[in-house]
Design goal:
By secondary structure, the protein is an alpha+beta fold. It is built from two helices and six strands, in the order E-E-H-H-E-E-E-E.
Length: 121
């Protein structure tokens, strides 16, 4: 559906999924946090889509370590300010971005920062 045409970071996650109220309760013992899942649900509702229609996501710039026993752990990212990814849509797509509001893991240094998104074409 989309092709990565430029990537200045070189490391992204496709296995850890998105944060949600449920997973944040399990991982961090917190209730009702803002999450990527709630962001996806809110945006896709505007497109007439239900939560069950949300597909797997890619976590740009998120680093996930795998232990020998198969456990996964979100670790400090390897990206730097100004890193970017360029995607080319190969067909009409609905691409929903969530600038992860998670402040309980090291993916964004415990302090999410702004992102810039440019849509052209
Ligand atoms: Zn998130």
């Amino acid at each position: 559906m989309m092709t990565v045409t430029e990537d200045s970071c070189g490391y992204h996650d496709t296995l850890a999924g998105c944060c949600s109220c449920e997973i944040d309760r399990v991982r961090y013992g917190v209730e009702k946090t803002e999450s990527c899942r709630t962001n996806f649900i809110a945006e896709l509702a505007g497109w007439g889509m239900s939560p069950s229609e949300i597909v797997s996501n890619i976590n740009f710039f998120m680093s996930v370590a795998f232990a020998e026993d198969g456990a996964v752990k979100i670790v400090e990212g390897v990206s730097k300010p100004g890193d970017r990814v360029t995607l080319r849509a190969e067909m009409p797509v609905i691409a929903v971005l969530s600038n992860c509001p998670q402040e309980h893991n090291p993916a964004a240094g415990f302090a999410p920062t702004p992102i810039e998104v440019i849509v052209s074409g």
